[in-house]
Amino acid sequence: MSKMDLKKVFICGGTGFLGYYSALEFIKQGVKVGVMALPGEGILNADFWPKEIEVHEGFLFNFKKMNRDLTDKEKAMNATFDEKVKMFEGYDALVYAVGPDDRVHSPAGSTGYEYFYEKLVTEVADTFEAAKKAGVKKAVLLNSYFAYFDRAGIKKSAKSDKYVIEPAKDPNKPGYLAERHPYIKVRVEQSAKMIEVGGGVANGGMDVVVLELPYIFGNMPKRTPLWKEVFLDRFAKMPAVMFPKGGTNMIHVDGIAEAVVAATYYGEHGDRLPVGNEDRKYEYMINKMMEDIGATKRYMGVPTWMATMGGKMVASGLKKTNQDSGLNYHYLMKDIQSRDLYMQDAALETRKKLHYDEFGYTGGGSLDDGIYKTVMACYPHRFDENGKLIEKWQGVNPIKQETAENNKFVNKK
Q: What global pTM score does this model have?
């Protein structure tokens, strides 16, 4: 495919982690960037925010306030379909970097499938339709690497207890993982739906390229990484970090920005491209995190059967609160966390397809640097102005929900 003539790109989620770094990389390439920000979002006045970015304030979806009616001002902030069309006019491309994390639980009374489908398919399709009507020629959708593994056909061997990979016949149809996990099913359906909505420039529509992303590390100024709430806080009371024995692909956030820019220039309609860098065990990731913040606790591998029991306990707790999860806790540890979800070779093929060498891209910063910056943003009070661990925190394990405001230093040396 020839290189797209790209002058202006609109990033949905441009003030978020992935969107922000993608915006910075587009600016480096001389591309003008537009984003939509929540009304009064403080980040826009921060010193680090690029002032050349065109900002549209409002709500990309129908904003609903719990326990009270919306004010007239809030109602006016909801972007209608026609308002989105007008907002996208004049842009060559759209990057969509919005959506709940797979570790988020659904609101009470909503199934995991219902919740994620609304957020990742219904709301997104409306935006893609608006972009197509506005004349946008290409859209890059940030999806999950779970869709890649579902498409790869991971399933239990008929001859043993091992899991094997068999290529799926139809990438638009959910596979083994999607059958069990609502979030993965929705991600597969999201890709298929947005490619269908786009239709392709050759057919008078919009090209849609899907990027399938793994574990991502790095930090964004003035933001606490989600890693703290959904991961690190949960292990604060444990003497060791008990976790399954699997592994995954990991990448520095800079690598995501590279992929987004390269895909916007060179991605073809219907592409589903796995993006990643290094295949690593969870043991490496966890121990690196603990070492970087000065903690003494370390990774302790948990057998699959024991991890599964823990997962079922979480599922039971969610049932009591009438909530649901995107990843089925009855099967999560066996299907995913205890497996090596590796795709380094596939990610290298993506780099070739998207002409990384032309841009001088290498897949992003080092993984060690990304993890260090992640935990530094989770526990900023443990580091000095130069990003070095303060001596008094060496050998100190974090307390539950430790923050700069509530930390209770206890020298355990």
A: 0.91
